[in-house]
TrEMBL record:
Region (Disordered) location: 241-262
Biased composition (Polar residues): 253-262
Keyword Repeat: yes
Keyword Repeat: yes
Organism encoding this protein: Panurus biarmicus (Bearded tit)
GO cellular component: nucleus
Pfam families recorded: WD40 (PF00400)
WD-type repeats, residues: 40-82
Lineage: Eukaryota, Metazoa, Chordata, Craniata, Vertebrata
GO biological process: cytoskeleton organization; regulation of cell shape; regulation of transcription by RNA polymerase II
Domain of life from the UniProt record: Eukaryota
Keyword entries, A-Z: Repeat, WD repeat
Gene designation per UniProt: Brwd3_0
Name of the protein in question: BRWD3 protein
Length: 262
């Protein structure tokens, strides 16, 4: 079988070059002489992630499609730590990317199941406020191309980067509470009522269709769209009663309506 290099990384001081090969071995080379220093074994599938420590030239991190994450000492050619990304009920998850934090005390990985894995020193209390499942409500919305071949959101006809900040939802599309919605850049200082993700679409003054929270849309009388819809439904019902020879209640002190639509 012809061997192929799947990934290359230099250490932070350019003294060594690390290569990943499709026979699942990592090789450490002297960058000046080309001498092979170490062959590192441990992976049993292809490796597409090699990440050098931000300041310690001895440390390199590797991760691959076998779900393994290794921390190596490339000076000694030894394994420091090994983590296996086992997902309950689904087998392992291939690791697609890893990055160190600037201080070198933590690293983060992403896998084929959409998980973000955080490793490091200390406790995880800081991260406990984050829901287990976080998606933007726009993540799986279809896109189209306009006459100039630019990408647009199909529903709003807007360029995705010009749309309002998205809402955070779980895997089923259910919105997270308002305290989590404020974690989205652009929604940090929103009022609670602006963070209720009941989305609607209206045309602005330039004729562009824009996305808005239904509770925040207003008509010409500064009345919310929802209130306007209820008022219009009430007016239509009262007119129908008058045409049928009945007198509508006057005034309604406590009236509720249930509107069913398909």
């Amino acid at each position: 079988t012809k061997l192929k290099v799947t990934m290359v990384a230099w250490d932070r001081y350019d003294a060594t070059v690390i290569t990943a090969v499709n026979n699942f071995l990592l090789k450490v080379w002297n960058s000046s002489t080309g001498q092979l220093l170490h062959s590192l074994s441990g992976h049993d599938d292809e490796v597409f992630v090699l990440e050098a420590h931000p300041f310690d030239q001895r440390i390199v991190l590797s991760a691959g499609h076998d779900g393994n994450i290794f921390v190596w000492d490339i000076d000694k050619g030894t394994k420091i730590r090994n983590y296996f990304n086992m997902i309950e009920g689904q087998g392992h998850g291939a690791v697609f990317d890893c990055k160190f934090s600037p201080d070198g005390q933590h690293f983060a990985c992403t896998d084929s199941h959409g998980h973000l894995l955080l490793f490091g020193f200390g406790c995880n209390k800081y991260y406990e406020k984050i829901p287990d499942q976080m998606f933007f409500h726009t993540d799986y919305r279809p896109l189209i191309r306009d006459a100039n071949n630019y990408v647009l959101d199909e529903q709003t006809q807007q360029a995705p980067h010009l749309m309002p900040p998205p809402f955070l939802v779980d895997v089923d599309g259910n919105p997270h509470p308002t305290r989590f919605q404020r974690l989205v850049p652009g929604r940090e200082n929103c009022k609670d009522e602006q963070l209720i993700p009941q989305l609607g679409y209206v045309a602005n003054g330039d004729g562009e269709v824009v996305e808005q929270v239904i509770g925040q849309q207003t008509n010409d009388q500064d009345e919310s769209i929802l209130d306007g819809m209820i008022r219009e439904l009430q007016r239509e019902q009262d007119l129908r009663l008058i045409n049928e020879g009945e007198t509508p209640p006057n005034p309604p002190l406590n009236r509720s309506h249930s509107v069913n639509g398909g």
